[in-house]
Every structure is written in C-alpha cells, then in structure tokens.
C-alpha cells in the first residue's frame, strides 16, 4: 500500500460562483427552482447574468469548496476538475492552489470557457443555482492521476459529475483505483434533483461502492423514495459503513458501523447565504475521518465549518477554520 | 442649458477588486504601504496575486463605487472608465449597468486586460491596495461624451486619474464642459500619496475649478501641508464652495458656502473591511446634493452609506441603500 500523502482527493465540477441577491419574484419570473441546481447552456447563462443584479465572484463548485474547507482546517487535499486558461480559470486555480491544494488536471487551452454557477440568494438566505458547466464538462478519466488517488486516504466525489459521461467515467475510474488501494470512497448526493435524474444508479453506487455517503434530508428521502427521515436512516444504517446526513438547523446525524450519533447545529447570529453549507459540513467531517477522529468529533467539525460559511456571502471560508477549531477545542 | 438627465457623471479608473485577507507580516514582506494605494505593473500584479490568499472578486474602482452607491440610493448616474472586452471587463460592465448606470465609454478590443486592484484586508479592517491599471490607463478625452456631462447635475472625478496623461486630459475636458454648462464640478483627492504626487496641480484645481471637494483627513492635511485639521478646514472654507471632509470614526465635516456642519459617524457593530468607505460617503453626499438636500442631510446619507459598506467585504452595497435611507427617514 502506497503512503498516504493526501487526506482527501476530490473530483468535481470546477466552477466560479457569481453571487447576487434576488427576490422570490425574480426566481419565479425566471422559472428558477428555489434551493435547487439547474444546468443551463451558454446562451441562457448570458441572458440570466444580464438580468441579475450586481454580483461578487468567488471560486466555487461543490467538491472544490469541500477541498478548500479541508485545506482551511489544515488538511492536505487534491482536487480534480477542468477549467480553461481564461481569467476565471486563473481565479479558480489561484484560489485552490493558494490553499496548498494540489491541482493535477490539465487546463483546457481551447473550447468552452471556465464554467460558472449563477447563485441567486433570496432574503431567507436560501441559494438557487443555475450552472453553466463550460470547460468543467470536459473532465475525462485521463485527467485522473491514479497515483494521487492511491495516495489519498479518502476519495470524495460529487453526484453532479453524473450529468456528463466523461466526468462519470472519471468518477468510476477513481472509485475503482481507490477501492483497489484499500482507500475510502466517498460520495455526496449533491442535490435532490440530481438524485431524481440518476436514482437507480445512485442506489447501486451507494450500496456497492461507497464507504462514506453525504446527503441532506431531501436527498436521502429522494434516494430511497421514502417519506420519513427515520425510514431513510434505517436504509443508510444497513447499506453504508459511514454516512453523514445533514438536516439544516436540526444538525446532523452520523452513521458509523451501524451506530447513530446526533450532532446539534451551531447557532448563527445572522444567516446570510447558505451557499456551501453542505460542502463545508463535508469538509469538516472528511478532515476528521481522515485524521482518525471519532464520529461525533467529525460531525462537530462539519457543523462548525458549515456555521462559518452561512454567516457570509460565498462558499469558501473567510477565516482560518483551523484556528476556529482550535478555539473550540476541536 | 440642457435638461438634467443624470444626478452625477463619474470619471474614474474601471477596476475589478480582488480581495483577500492578509496579516501585517505579509504587507511588510511585500513592502506594501498599509492603507495606501500603490500602482503596480502586470508582472508585479501576477507575482503578488500568486502570493495572496484565496480571494473574492467584486467590481471596484473608487469613482465607480461611488456611482454604484448613488444608483443604489435611487440616483441616476453615468460612469466613464475603460475596460477590455475580457471576462473581468464583462463583470465590470454587468455590475455597473445592472444598476441602471449609463456606461458610455468604448470597450477596448485589444491591448492591456481589464485593470484590477489587489486589496489586502488586515485584521484591523484596514485595506491596502496594489493597482494594476491595465485597460483603465487608456481612457482619453475621446471617451468623454460631452452631452452626458452637460446633462449631469454634478461631474465627479477621482484624483487617481492624474496618474495617466490621457485620463488627466479626459478629466480636464470634462471639467471644462461641466463648468461651461453651469454644472457642479467635484473632485475626490483619492489618497494622500496621490496628493503627494500632484500637490501643486491639485491645489490649483481645488482653488480654481472644483466646486465640491471630497477628502479624508490625511488627504486634506497633505494638500495644504498643514498639521492640524482646523488649519486645513480654514483653508477649505476660503477656497471651496462645498466640501465634505471625512474623519473615520469622528464622522464628517461639511463645508457649504462658508458654513461648517458636523455629522457624527454611525456605529457599526463589526467593521469587516473599510474598502469603499470614502467612495460610499461620496455617493450619499452627491445624491443628496444633486437632489437639493441640506448639507447635513447630505452628510448623513454619506455616513449611512459608508457604514453599510464597512460592515462587509467589498466596495459595493450588498443591500438597497434607497431602502436603508427610507428606514432611517433620510
């Protein structure tokens, strides 16, 4: 078995977030599903951007946010995703590598521009996302460096990858390499609409290939097509070695080898923007697991990281999560 | 006299801000003057960006921030500045035009990329800026639409323009057009280091051509090379019809036709990032003056807008300043 060099290798869509405030009427007039993620094409991205208000830009992408959070906690990460060598691509690469994260995938020199996610934040702090994948859709198995996967304690992937054949194959290749190397394979279901699109495949994946599953309540209910969280939890206990189920202000429920641990949410004085909450929960949890912490400790790190991210705009930490964890005795 | 179509026409450097946290040790190691603005070239911009931490991007530029703030208050604005037709240029144009601001200058199709300002925010919320002007330095008198200037109640310009010959000429042309049309000519001194670079010219400008001067304490002391605020204030009373002098937590002092009005600062529960504080003060003041409000009312609008901007990262309002003013009865 090769030496562990990274706590987590992540595979996901490399995106720059474009974040603006909007009201419910705007979402309705644009037919945007509140709280969801919708894939859009370049033309629709231009039109919607033209109608959006003033925005700020931040590196984003669900899995990339998680790896950035892991690095902020002091973890060693690698991220596989595809950008173009344009200005937004440069921003993405700067932001992830300045954290010490390895970025082994090649950068596209032609074709679609770096992908972006148009994030509309409503006054209730909910985010609704319209994603133009751009260069991100050109991730292929060739971009996956097997040595990096073998050298990572956990390989973590986002369900969103399933939307493109090449990325899906990259995902399956990485999962096989990780499994063969005796590493942990982890998946986030990403989004309940994503689960709707790929339910049978995700059910099989979770049962047969995934050691650690992340899902929020809507996603896990959708995966198993059940109505109650308790029913879903029972299925998870049977099928997953590890799982972390997030329930917003109800906190998280961690499953580890059949045992169930409840972790309370942290109080946040003002919730500004929930973008990245799930991603940062995963960051804290993965960091803890890679470092051999107990399940409830992992959960508390996740809850702490999520609380930081929802207190400001943008899906990347504004302060050192490592220092925050030290202050909390975590 | 042509009809007034705009409250304010602004001329300034069109820049995208790249905002990251940094500590004092980083500023020292990079020889960055705390609280100041230093012009840098493309190579230095790349090097410094490479050493900076994870960042967020926001449209910026001192005068452009002011015009954006004016629009957020419900004012009608126009902005003259130069960007290239690259991704950051698109971001800049989107953000200013989505507010309803007119953007009459042509967009560069070749040459230097859209300019950017690398903003380092220290834990004391102070910002230190390193600016690569890029396309912004190619603003020329040809970019100034005289009709727009004549149709604007106030023409507002930033002292930073003095750093480039073409932009300086654009400034002088606009000032003449505005004056000849019987409009108000306004200037912000921008930065005490900028005043150091052009003191004699700025002294003459303020005395002969400017109706409304904006300066913070360091800038006005530097302009007149005096040691006390009171001495500077006396000079201002003699030389300026209108002036607004900002003093951070001491609030602002407004001069109007020889009378002096003091305006208290607003308490801010947590000062996060002071970038844009002066720009947004000017926004509130200009809006008030263009709408014919009394001097202390103008000052209170300025103080309110500045308080909003320092409570979060980035130099553009995150909420509607018009609604905020309505809540305050302003």
What is the CATH first-level class name of chain A? Alpha Beta
Largest sheet of chain A: 8 strands, mixed
Distance between the termini of chain A: 30 Å
CATH topology of chain A: UDP-N-acetylmuramoyl-L-alanine:D-glutamate ligase
Largest interface: pair, residues per side: A-B, 27 and 27 residues
The number of domains of chain A: 1
Given the structure, what is the number of helices of chain A?
12
Task: List the strand order in the largest sheet of chain A.
Answer: 5-1-8-9-10-11-12-13
Helix/strand structural class of chain A: alpha/beta
Q: What is the oligomer described by this structure?
A: homodimer
Share of β-strand residues of chain A: 15-25%
Overall average residue pLDDT of chain A: 96
Query: Looking at this structure, what is the CATH superfamily of chain A?
Result: Ribokinase
What does the model show?
Two copies of one chain form a homodimer. Chain A has 330 residues and is an alpha/beta fold. Chain A has one domain (6-13, 61-108, 139-327): Ribokinase (UDP-N-acetylmuramoyl-L-alanine:D-glutamate ligase). Helices cover 40% and strands 22% of the residues of chain A. The first copy, chain A, has an eight-stranded mixed β-sheet with strand order 5-1-8-9-10-11-12-13, with helices on both faces. A five-stranded mixed β-sheet of chain A has the order 3-7-6-2-4. Chain A is globular, with a radius of gyration of 18 Å. Chain A binds chain B through residues 21, 49-50, 52-59, 68, 86-88, 91, 94-95, 98-99, 113, 312-314, 316, 318-319, and chain B through 21, 49-50, 52-59, 68, 86-88, 91, 94-95, 98-99, 113, 312-314, 316, 318-319.
């Amino acid at each position: 078995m090769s030496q562990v060099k990274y706590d987590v290798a992540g595979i996901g869509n490399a995106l720059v977030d474009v974040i603006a405030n909007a009201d419910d009427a705007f979402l309705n007039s644009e037919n945007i599903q509140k709280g969801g993620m919708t894939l859009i094409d370049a033309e629709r991205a231009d039109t919607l951007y033209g109608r959006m208000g003033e925005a700020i830009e931040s590196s984003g992408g669900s899995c990339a946010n998680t790896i950035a959070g892991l690095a902020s906690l002091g973890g060693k990460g690698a991220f596989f995703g595809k950008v173009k060598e344009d200005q937004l691509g440069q921003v993405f690469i700067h932001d992830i590598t300045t954290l010490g994260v390895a970025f082994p995938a090649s950068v596209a020199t032609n074709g679609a521009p770096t992908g972006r996610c148009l994030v509309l934040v409503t006054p209730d702090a909910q985010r609704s996302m319209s994603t133009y994948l751009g260069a991100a859709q050109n991730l292929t198995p060739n971009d996956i460096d097997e040595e990096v996967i073998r050298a990572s304690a956990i390989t973590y992937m986002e369900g969103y990858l399933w939307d493109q054949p090449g990325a899906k194959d990259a995902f399956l290749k990485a999962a096989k390499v990780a499994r063969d190397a005796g590493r942990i394979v982890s998946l986030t279901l990403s989004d309940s609409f994503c689960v709707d699109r790929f339910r049978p495949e995700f059910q099989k994946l979770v049962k047969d290939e995934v050691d650690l599953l992340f899902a929020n309540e809507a996603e896990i209910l959708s995966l198993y097509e059940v109505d109650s969280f308790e029913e879903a939890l029972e299925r998870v206990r049977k099928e997953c070695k590890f799982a972390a189920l997030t329930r917003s202000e109800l906190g998280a429920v961690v499953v580890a080898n059949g045992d169930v641990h409840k972790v309370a949410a942290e109080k946040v004085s003002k919730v500004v923007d929930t973008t990245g909450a799930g991603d940062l929960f995963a960051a804290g949890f993965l960091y803890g697991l890679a470092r051999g912490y107990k399940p409830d400790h992992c959960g508390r790190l996740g809850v702490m990281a999520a609380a930081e991210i929802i207190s400001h705009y943008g899906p990347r930490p504004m302060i050192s999560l490592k220092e925050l964890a030290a202050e909390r005795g975590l």
